[in-house]
Specification:
Blueprint: E1 43-78, E2 85-87, E3 90-100, E4 104-140
Antiparallel strand pairs: 1-4, 2-3, 3-4
Domain DUF2382: 26-136
Organism: Dyadobacter sediminis
InterPro entries: DUF2382 (IPR019060)
């Protein structure tokens, strides 16, 4: 058996001898995590757009409104000028004149009847319309980072 002195202290840098009445200082290590980001190109996207003009023919319904004017002779004396009136979708406008007799009176000479008339027909319209198509091509550079 060897009788070695166990009171020897190992060689530690900046080590101070242990004294029983002094506080013991033990150095601690703390790690800090630093998170950072960097941009890595993982691929490219190519977007191309093409314009096309397509001729189209379309059957459409057209409406045309006409008015029929009908003059009706009345030749009756009235006390005052009749107002414009509407009967069954027809606008009626009174036409008067003054007539000299022994006294002056109003005579309803005629009425003008205005009747709207709507006709419908089909027409073929030929026109060119614009159409666009988009093509998307994705290329990867070989990295698997998403």
């Amino acid at each position: 058996m060897s009788t070695e002195n166990n009171s020897e202290k190992p060689d530690l840098p900046n080590a101070q001898p242990f004294l029983p009445h002094q506080p013991l200082s033990i150095p601690l290590i703390r790690e800090v995590l630093i998170v950072d980001k960097k941009t890595i190109q993982t691929g490219k996207v190519l977007v191309s757009k093409k314009n096309y003009e397509d001729p189209v023919s379309e059957q459409i319904e057209l409406s045309c409104q006409k008015v029929i004017i009908e003059r009706r002779q009345i030749n009756e004396y009235v006390e005052s000028a009749p107002p414009v009136r509407y009967e069954n979708g027809v606008t009626i406008i009174a036409v008067i004149k003054e007539v000299l007799v022994t006294e002056k009176r109003l005579m309803l000479v005629e009425e003008i009847h205005i009747c709207p008339q709507t006709t419908t027909s089909l027409a073929l319209v030929n026109e060119t319309v614009l159409r666009q198509e988009v093509e998307i091509v994705r290329t990867n550079t070989g990295t698997d980072i998403y």
